[in-house]
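Q: What residues go here?
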């Protein structure tokens, strides 16, 4: 894994941890996320929240 890939991998983990914290502290966001039926809906919703988790760490 290159340094750039490692950096992107760690950024994605950080964003996923932030999303987990967000839905833990915000019941309405948790409900919204739970209503997603597939990966694309999750990506669309979390993008609206300001996150960029749609790409795999090696695709940046």
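A:
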């Amino acid at each position: 894994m290159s340094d750039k890939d490692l950096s992107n991998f760690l950024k994605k983990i950080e964003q996923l941890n932030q999303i987990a914290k967000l839905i833990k502290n915000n019941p309405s966001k948790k409900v919204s996320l739970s209503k997603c039926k597939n990966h694309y809906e999750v990506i669309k919703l979390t993008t609206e929240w300001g996150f960029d988790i749609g790409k795999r760490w090696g695709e940046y």
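A: Context that may help when evaluating the design: The mean pLDDT is 92. The longest helix spans residues 3-25.
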